[in-house]
Structure formats: C-alpha cells, structure tokens
Design a protein that fits this description.
Elements lengths: L7 E4 L2 H9 L3 E4 L5 H8 L4 E4 L7 H15 L3 E5 L11 H15 L3 E7 L10 H7 L1 E4 L5 E2 L4 H13 L7 E4 L5 E2 H12 L4 E4 L2 H10 L4 H15 L9 H6 L6 H7 L1 H4 L2
Parallel strand pairs: 1-2, 3-4, 4-5, 5-8, 6-10
Antiparallel strand pairs: 7-9
C-alpha cells in the first residue's frame, strides 16, 4: 500500500477479493456471522478497523469481530461508531454502537472510537429524486446538521490506527459548519445548474416514500430514528476534531457536491 503498511480486508465474495487485490491489499474471505472465518482473517493482524452497515443484528455481528480479534491477539481496534453514541441516546443505532464500544473497552484493546456526525455521502441516496424531480425530500424541518465528508472520516480513522496519541479517545467528527437542508439543496443546485428545492415532509410520508423506493423496513426504521434526532436539533453541534487530528479544516459540502456532480446532474 502507499502507506508502506500491509493491509488485509475482509470480503464475502471472490469478486470483492479481486477488487481488494487490485487496490494493493490482501483479501480475506469471511463473514461477520462466521466466527471461524473471522479467526482465520485476523490471524497475524495487529490493528483492526471495524465498520459495517446498520443492521438489526449489528451488535452480535460486530461483537463477533471484536471477540475474534481478542482471541487472535489484535492489539488495537478502531471502531467506526456514530456521533454522540451513548447508552442513553434517543437513537437506537447510537445505543447499539455504544454497546460495541463498551465491549472493545472491556476486552482491553488499545482503542479509538471514531464517531462521525452524519456522512455527506448519504446525500447520494437522494440523487435519483434530485435528478428526476429537482427536489430533496426530508422530514427534518429547518434543522441543521454538521455533516462530514467520508474522506475526512477515513483520514481520521487512519490516523487513529497509526498514531499513538489518539489511543483511548472518542473522536466526535463533524464537518466545518452546520447546514440546513435548504442550504444543501441550494449547494446542489449551484452545481447542477438548475433549481433544486428542499421539501420538508412528515415522518409518515417520509417512511412511505422510503418503502416505496424499496428500502428494507429495518433500514427505514433506523433512518427515521436518525431523522428525528436531526429534526430535534441533535446534529447541529460542532467539534474541531478534523482540524486537530489532520491539521486542516474539514472539506466543505460544496466540495463534496462538486466532486460528485455527475450524480446530481439532470
């Protein structure tokens, strides 16, 4: 790898393994649900980055990885968590993440929890509607969120894996500024070269829209829970983590949109 470090990535298919090889990393076939495969994949690993998509069985699946890491002698674990994860969060997903954080701490790893406050890249999930209707539908009213680019999150996670000064930290990673979704629509419109309107909708309408678009019901429940958190003002906070860790400011939302202009163009 460009960093000079050997990297192994867990994959579930040979097609994914080929992509990993093409990137210069070593693939390991396995699955979070298969403890034996995790043991094989983690053999000889010193530092582990844990990330998975939201899932109703997330705690057990990530717990399998963490337990297997302890058995394999992994020294450091960096977990991709969620902003303001805690045992008392009103958001179920954030409570799940916190349970895995606690498991990591109990098992005695060197650890860092990376807690992003929403991904700019999640807006790509709205790209089809923006292209077809020139509209962004969300049930969050006029609330703002300090979304962060996944590239900033990745750089912070890499720093946590490779630097000793971030051990034991819970890094609340935010973007440079809280933006309302009306402002986000305006940013997309500037790049798309046509009007894009933010349309506040009710939670029942939002849920029905997601189901109609084919989202699995369990994901709809998780996302709607997060939307309620945003609508209540919970995602408008700011931290200096990106600048403190990386020595630069977080990427702007305008930069994200420019870099993904093909996704939003009519």
């Amino acid at each position: 790898m460009a960093s000079g470090r050997s990297v192994r990535a867990l994959v579930r298919t040979e097609a994914a393994a080929d992509r990993v090889r093409d990137s210069g990393a070593e693939p390991a076939l396995g699955d979070f649900a298969d403890r034996a495969s995790l043991g094989r994949a983690l053999c000889g690993v010193d530092r582990l980055f844990v990330s998975s998509s939201a899932h109703p069985d997330q705690r057990r699946l990530q717990g399998n990885v963490v337990a297997a890491a302890a058995e394999a002698g992994v020294r450091r674990v960096v977990k991709l968590s969620a902003g303001k994860a805690s045992a008392t969060s009103p958001v179920l997903l954030k409570r799940w993440h916190h349970e895995t954080e606690e498991q990591i701490e109990r098992l005695g790893f060197e650890y860092t929890h990376v807690r992003p406050n929403g991904f700019m890249q999640n807006m790509l999930g709205h790209a089809a509607t923006i292209r077809s209707e020139a509209a962004l539908y969300l049930p969050v009213g006029d609330a703002a969120a300090s979304q962060v680019d996944a590239r900033d999150i990745a750089d912070v996670a890499f720093a946590a894996l490779t630097r000793d000064d971030l051990t034991g930290a819970a890094l609340e990673v935010t973007g440079r500024e809280p933006l309302t979704y009306a402002a986000i629509a305006q940013s997309i419109a500037r790049v798309a070269g046509r009007p894009v309107t933010y349309v506040p909708e009710s939670f029942p309408s939002s849920r029905a829209r997601m189901l109609q678009q084919g989202a699995p019901p369990h994901m709809v429940d998780i996302v709607q829970d997060v939307y309620r958190f945003i609508a209540a003002g919970g995602a408008a906070y700011m931290t200096p983590v990106v600048e403190d860790v990386l020595g630069r400011k977080p990427l702007l939302f305008d930069q994200f949109v420019q870099d993904h202009s093909h996704a939003f163009a009519a």
